[in-house]
Structures are given as structure tokens and as C-alpha cells.
User: Which sequence fits this backbone?
């Protein structure tokens, strides 16, 4: 079935096209990050999310927030954190005000790798979008992604 299959409702067609676009982009970025930096898309995303934390009120993310940001279950996120910690890219420590809380920070080697991988991620994303824009089913979604500005 394609995104424009007449058996699908308009809503289902849109979802199918969006899934297709996401899959193609993720696969392209995954190959580039693995080849050049030995990172998966999820590992890159986790490093990126955690690198944006800051000290102070609301600065550190809880594991559920991290899991939501990288679109993984909490248990999968914990396993991913452990893998990156084993590689020396992340560190964990107890929250100074609540001993039940555990913070996760990106280490200096993790920040260095993230800085090196960002241009690869951006380039692979651009390449994947340019390729997808050639497909008439995906072109409107590509245009939407290119104009989307998220404010938070």
C-alpha cells in the first residue's frame, strides 16, 4: 500500500506518508551517524537532549522527560543511558536536594562527540529531505517540515 492508496482514508494516507518520511529520514541519518561517529540516532538524540540541560530550577530532566524527548520507554532510555555511560559519554549522580533523584549529564568526551556529530546529523537530514522532496507524496510534508518552527 502507498500513501495515496484509495482504500485508505485521507487521515490514514497522511499518516502513512508521515511515517514513510520519518522512516526514510531516520534511516539516512542513522547510516551517517553510525558510519562517521559510531552513534545511533537514539544515542545522538539522547546526547543532544541532555546537553541542553542546565543547573538551577527545572534545569535537569527527569528520566520520564528524557524518555519522552527521545521517544523511548523509560526502561529503554535507562538502558541507552547505561550504554553511553559505559562509553564515558554520560555520567550519573544523585540529586543534591532529593537523594531519590538521579541526574544524567553529558561528559566532556560526550560533548566533543556531539559537537563533531551535529554537522553530520544536519547534513544527513538535509540530504534525506531533499531526496524525499522528489516524491510527490512526500513533498508537501517536506515543505511543512522546512517551515516548521517549534518554540518552547
Assistant:
Amino acid at each position: 500500500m502507498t500513501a495515496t492508496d484509495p482504500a485508505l482514508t485521507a487521515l490514514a494516507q497522511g499518516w502513512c506518508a508521515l511515517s514513510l518520511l520519518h522512516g526514510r529520514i531516520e534511516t539516512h541519518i542513522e547510516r551517517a551517524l553510525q558510519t562517521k561517529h559510531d552513534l545511533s540516532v537514539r544515542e545522538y538524540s539522547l546526547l543532544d537532549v541532555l546537553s541542553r540541560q542546565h543547573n538551577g530550577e527545572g534545569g535537569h530532566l527527569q528520566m520520564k522527560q528524557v524518555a519522552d524527548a527521545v521517544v523511548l520507554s523509560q526502561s529503554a532510555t535507562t538502558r541507552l543511558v547505561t550504554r553511553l555511560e559505559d562509553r564515558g559519554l554520560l555520567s550519573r549522580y544523585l540529586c543534591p536536594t532529593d537523594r531519590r533523584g538521579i541526574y544524567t549529564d553529558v561528559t566532556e568526551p560526550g560533548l566533543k562527540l556531539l559537537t563533531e556529530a551535529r554537522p553530520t546529523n544536519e547534513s544527513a537530514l538535509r540530504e534525506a529531505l531533499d531526496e524525499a522532496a522528489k516524491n510527490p507524496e512526500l513533498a508537501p510534508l517536506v515543505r511543512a517540515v522546512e517551515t516548521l518552527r517549534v518554540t518552547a
